[in-house]
Amino acid sequence: xxxxxxxxxxxxxxxxxxxxxxxxxxxxxxxxxxxxxxxxxxxxxxxxxxxxxxxxxxxxxxxxxxxxxxxxxxxxxxxxxxxxxxxxxxxxxxxxxxxxxxxxxxxxxxxxxxxxxxxxxxxxxxxxxxxxxxxxxxxxxxxxxxxxxxxxxxxxxxxxx
Length: 161
Description:
Structural class: mainly alpha
Helix content: 55-70%
Distance between the termini: 23 Å
């Protein structure tokens, strides 16, 4: 009987969706107060910190785990999650929404501003499923060819699925 793969609640369950909170916040930026958008970054950042704690704790429980290995697991997770879950997707959705709102103001100025803001939000939300895998793969590529080399971390196969 094959060994069952351990479920990673931060990657294999709906908890993973918390990492996308800031993208949703950015999509709604045109319609909501700034505190709402910032709070979504708080949710996504809490997700990143929780996953970092989880991965470093799991590493510490491995037989023969060194402080260096634990630190590397924590740094790897923190950097990957920060870039792949918060920084790059938040920036991407922000720019897509800003560009769409600007473009609509130039092309269809007679459409009421509130309508253009709702369209912008729909565009931002609609982009989220399409940016996830390319961003994840890009962050893996950059980390595999930079930070992970310096920390003696091999590319993690489970991350490239």
